[in-house]
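@channel sequence for tomorrow's demo:
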Amino acid sequence: MSCLPSTIKLSILSIASSILLLSGCASTLTSNEQSKNLSDLNYDLSNMVSNNSCTASFQCKVLEVGARACGGPSKYAVYSTLNTSQEEAEQLAQQITKQEKIQNKAQGLTDCSPVLEVQSLCINHQCQSFDIK
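structure tokens (generated this afternoon):
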């Protein structure tokens, strides 16, 4: 390296020190910081299931999403398999549920209000929910 100009030596040194600093930062991130936060996950799910157009009721599905502190889901999401991958929607709902369980553990019992179960039908070419009584 002694035959390299000083500007190149300085550039190489800067790059090497940056890599060392960045690699140290990556190892100190917690798993919560590495994964998406709960509001981002809910936003992603909302966008994923926003197109509820359908041609038949069998295309309409209901997802249990989240976890209440007293048990059961925190909400239900209705979506159409005509426009949304069932596997992707279920995976995202599972991520939200996992995050809410962690949050419930950290905060204790916060919300025990009941969430009514829903079913879905294709009405006027849109998947729509209705409460089960």
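heads up for whoever presents: Residues 9-34 have pLDDT under 50 and may be disordered.
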